[in-house]
Amino acid sequence: MGVLKKRWPGLASLPQLELCAGPTRVERLDTVSFDTGAELWAKRDDESATLYGGNKVRKLEWILAQAKARGCRTLVTAGALGSHHVLATATWGREHGMQTRAILVPQPWTPHVEQNLRALLATGAIVTPIKNLGFLPAAMAREVVLRRLKGDRPQRIELGGSCPTGALGYVEAGLEIAEQVDHGECPEPEFIYVALGTGGTAAGLAIGLAAAGFTTRVVGVRVTESKVINTLTLRMLVRGTARRLRALDPSFPAVAKAAFELIQIDNRYFGDGYGTPHAGAAAAMEAAARDGIRLDQTYTGRAFAAMLADGHEGGGRRLFIVTLSGADLGPRIENAPEVPAWARAMGEL
Ligand SMILES: Cc1ncc(COP(=O)(O)O)c(C=O)c1O
Questions:
Q1: Is-above-0.85 flag for pTM?
Q2: Ligand 1, atom nearest to 229 Cα
Q3: Which one of 78, 112, 155, 289 is least enclosed by Cβ atoms within 10 Å?
């Protein structure tokens, strides 16, 4: 049983699948700490699950459990061509007998995107391309209606799994960090760094930390367009998640305001746009590799770059959440279907 249900038994009725392999470890990053003069740590959520880890699996523990409890056989979701969220959903959905139908939007083509897309196709997911995010609400609604007409009971999953149910996964992670600090596994961080895509990770973390009485700042390094994530959408997500927790267990502390105030949106690393090459991220990826951490350019490389820059400037105790799955997709894509021509063309739009 996770720390959330242990501490607030009123949440026991909420369905949760056990997809994660227990608390992920925290470790000191000796090389980058030495280079920057700061005390830099990592929480290894890349090891959160062997099949497919990273941050998405924490959200899916709650989202897929809800879908299963409703008797769903189809998951309808969306993301960019190389979306980790869509891949995680299709991978874990298949394990639990649900097929994923995904709407995909363009993103610059890279070997990482190609690998993710091939792994997605290997799960048997059905993908539908659209040209831009503006068409997404209609495309999702259409897919859900079509499935219903076929007698199915589809579960719609928001972009990035960032809804109050999905964010619970990171409330749990925030509480987990507080326990690790209390047990002396790492010093209490002044700042925690995560990539800010659709916000569920940062929102959940802040609620978990605030509920544990911590005042650690959560630095959300924005990597998606501000129409996807901004102060308003983040505030709504924090409020909705906190409200859901208190509705289920009124003894859960009223931390929505305090949690929202812990989050700082860092806009410095958006660069030329979502998924575009970024020199700072590339340098950060090399630096992290020296401490044995593999990052990607779209999300984690940008967030790590922010932590390095702030560490250089201000020292301090800083913790990075490795939200990228560490699972080796190589064997899974050996016999995967070829990437359709439209996908490559979309990646070059
Ligand atoms: C590797 C990785 N890190 C971080 C994030 C950001 O998480 P969130 O969407 O909860 O802000 C994502 C989102 O897709 C991701 O794939």
A1: yes
A2: 11
A3: 289
Domains of the chain (ranges; CATH) run: 3-55+163-321 (3.40.50.1100), 56-161+332-347 (3.40.50.1100)
Dist. CA 339 → ligand 1 center (Å): 23
HEC secondary structure over the chain = CCHHHHHCHHHHHCCCCCCCCCCCCEEECHHHHHHHCCEEEEECHHHCCCCCCCCHHHHHHHHHHHHHHCCCCEEEEEEECCCHHHHHHHHHHHHCCCEEEEEEECCCCCHHHHHHHHHHHHCCCEEEECCCHHHHHHHHHHHHHHHHHCCCCCEECCHHHCCHHHHHHHHHHHHHHHHHHHCCCCCCCCEEEEEECCCHHHHHHHHHHHHCCCCCEEEEEECCCCCCCCHHHHHHHHHHHHHHHHHHCCCCCCCHHHHHHHEEEECCCCCCCCCCCCHHHHHHHHHHHHCCCCCCCCCHHHHHHHHHHHHHHHCCEEEEECCCCCCCCHHHHCCCCCCCHHHHHHHCC
Over residues 196-249, the pLDDT tens digits come to: 999 999 999 999 999 999 999 999 999 999 999 999 999 999 999 999 999 999
- The answer, yes or no, to whether any atom of ligand 1 lies below 6 A from the CB of 297, is no
